[in-house]
Amino acid sequence: MIMWKKRKSSTTFTFNGEKVFLAASQTLGTVFSYFQTSRIGLTQEEVEARQSLYGKNEVEHEQKKNPISTFIKAFINPFIGVLTALVIISFVLDVLLANPGEQDWTAIIIILTMVIASSILRFWQEWKANASSEALLKMVTNTCYVKRAGNQDEEINITDLVPGDIVMIAAGDMIPADMRIIEAKDLFVSQSSLTGESDPIEKRPEAKGNKHSKGSVIELENICFMGSNVVSGSATGIVFATGNSTYLGTIARSIAGHRAATAFDKGISKVSFLLIRFMLIMIPFVFLVNGVTKGDWLEAFIFALSVAVGLTPEMLPMIVTANLAKGAVAMSKKKTIVKDLNAIQNFGAMNILCTDKTGTLTCDQIVLEKYINTDGSNDESRRILRHAYFNSFFQTGLKNLMDKAILSHVKDLSLEYLKDNYTKVDEIPFDFTRRRMSVVVEDRQGKRQIITKGAVEEMLDICSHAEFNGEVHPMTIELKNKARDIIEQMNKQGMRVIAVAHKSYLDKTCDFRIEDEKDMVLIGYLAFLDPPKQSAASAIKQLHEHGIEIKILSGDNDAVVRTIARQVGIRTDNALTGPIFETMSEEEKMKAVNQTTVFSKLTPIQKTEIITLLQAQQHTVGFLGDGINDAAALRQSDIGISVDSAVDIAKESADIILLEKSLMVLEDGVLEGRKTFGNITKYIKMTASSNFGNMFSVMAASAFLPFLPMLPIHLLIQNLLYDISQTTIPFDRMDAEYLRKPRKWDASDLSRFMIFIGPISSIFDIVTYLVMWYAFGCQSMEHQTLFQSGWFIEGLLSQTLIVHMIRTRKLPFIQSCASWQVTGLTLLIMAIGILLPFTPFGSSIGLEALPLSYFPWLFGILLSYCILTQLIKNWYIHRFTKWL
Length: 884
Prior knowledge:
Layout: H1 17-25, H2 31-34, H3 44-54, H4 67-74, H5 78-96, H6 106-132, E1 143-147, E2 154-157, E3 166-170, E4 178-190, H7 192-195, E5 201-203, E6 223-224, E7 229-241, H8 247-255, H9 263-294, H10 297-311, H11 316-332, E8 336-338, H12 342-349, E9 352-355, E10 367-373, H13 383-394, H14 401-412, E11 422-431, E12 436-443, E13 448-455, H15 456-462, E14 463-468, E15 471-474, H16 477-492, E16 496-504, E17 520-529, H17 534-545, E18 549-553, H18 558-567, E19 575-577, H19 578-582, H20 586-595, E20 598-600, H21 604-616, E21 621-624, H22 631-636, E22 639-643, H23 648-653, E23 656-658, H24 665-704, H25 712-726, H26 747-775, H27 784-806, H28 820-835, H29 840-844, H30 854-880
Helix pairs in contact: 4-6, 5-6, 5-10, 6-11, 6-25, 9-10, 9-24, 10-25, 11-24, 12-24, 13-14, 20-21, 24-26, 24-27, 25-27, 25-28, 26-27, 26-30, 27-28, 27-30
């Protein structure tokens, strides 16, 4: 048959809906020949042939990262590329082309140390983070019962299924593949993981009417899809699609692999290439000025290479990774797994959080909210509850969520003893055509009654009377309208409502049938609610206080979604349903996604579309969900968040897994993200402005001094010491004011920051030049070592001090102090820098001991530098309203 002529290597991600409709349209007389199978199942040879053609019945998911490729990727960075090029050039100039005995490995060793330390730390942090979440990426092993020729019904792993297999399913089973039902008995299937709809759907061998030829494949009555669950009944079906060809597999393949570039990724790239552009402009200038003024072009070239190293924030990958890893460790202590380190920072940048409703905002557990008389008053006597309890307790069929809610409520009220006064006589099981069920009970006095509960409209059809105020009244049109008004009012409150009726003094003793559900007396209604999590309202309030807008994206009923939104503190003035959203133009959608806070009846594709439209308007969007229907939205968002009870694919798509149900951890994540963002920004702005200022000083000195202001080896060692002083930045604290609102990457502010703050250090570098020139007489080649030593110390100390000046908007050391780790290491590096010229190593690299009279000058220069920087900082904040 044509349907089997499908290549295993097909790479299309489009679900073959036509194939499903064809499968649904086959009659029971032609279905076996169409699927090329038989009533006794496939032979072993047929199974093996189809396994070789279609492969295992496995859905594609994220692959475990290879340690070798992860290690290699740690070295793929623009700054690492620049430094690697410098190592190669230094090796050629200082080793290969150097005279025997004059080979110098110092520059190569220093640069390689920077490269290797940065990359290895990045690899180690990422690998640890990946290893901690591997357990979440493993698929659950499931089995199913299969009928195959020559064998009795056997239990096999679902991965061994092939198209054409005859599979038997029963209550509690997961549907192992996409199947066409050929036999069924009271089969009800929950497709909530695929569609978001919690109500089970009845499946039958023959579709009623014309439902097998048009509409949504999910609604086909004789088709069951992989990933859904059997709620009740049993069935036999023929597998027609396995693995990635299933409906579930199509969703999984569309989200597996490389995710969309996030705001964090884009921000780091912008910063990297901005700094590289500055370097490409300054290096040729330094080379030309020194070549022209000094006449030694080779020395000028080597010096320009050293300037390139000085301008390169080679520790950026390491600082970024260390910051993110520290955030991941902090989150793990709150029972949260961080799968993607970048997600920590994206928490801080997030300004919109989109969330599903069921299982995330709500408990995913229906509770009985109230019981109401037919006139709308509350049933204080609990008579309605008693009748509903007898109905739920005595039924033998599978108890649904509402039955469980009734039984749980009665247990909480300690009323379970009521059943002891009654015995069960018979029952009329539930079905989705009548949408009701009945039990017949008898009390100790022999009074027999039938108690029925079910959907309101269906219950009104069988009730001839209504009881309220202790009296029984005929069921008039006015009473029916009154009932509908009561139900509509409760539906608007997001409650699901069922009706309860009874009929007493029955002459019949057994064999009750559906025909007996007539002329009944309506006694009242039960209203149910899926309540929000206790932590939801307070968590959402705190997120609002931190500048994050919350939007609900749900596939559930509009009234229910609005109610939950109100209960957790989300405004429902602007609400929109999926069908209406679908009819909008692109421009209307762009406007709607900004204004609307509550979306209901959405398809999975619409959830993804809404997130994409928000991202197109420069929002950093998070998404919180737990179902298969949320997986694509989790993948598209800047930060995907899921919960421990989520389906596997939702977990794989998410960046963050909450191992506890409490949503309060979201606030912790936001604060960790903003701390991480702040500390990363500190490093970038510190190193960029400091390096820019120092290199500006180099250019000025190169133009006017008869010797190099600092030797290449001095620049490299100074840069290495400065980089070491930065390694504790991930442990620094952030000011409380900084954590109050979302933080997003803005590379344009970096260039402005460099231009305004960087030259401040150049002013005092030039002052140092003048002091060394005039106060200490360093005006000739004989005194260049003293000059270079003086500027080496001042340059290192001013660079290190800038850490404390830039890390806060406030007055450093007084209004805001750095963490002890930052303070301790910067002091240590400053001490090493001061002592280095007095050591044998300092002498070996061309430094010399400075006279004590130099240090009062140094103190005055550094103090003046701090004061001027603080004044410029205050002006900058007032002028541009931002700092970090």
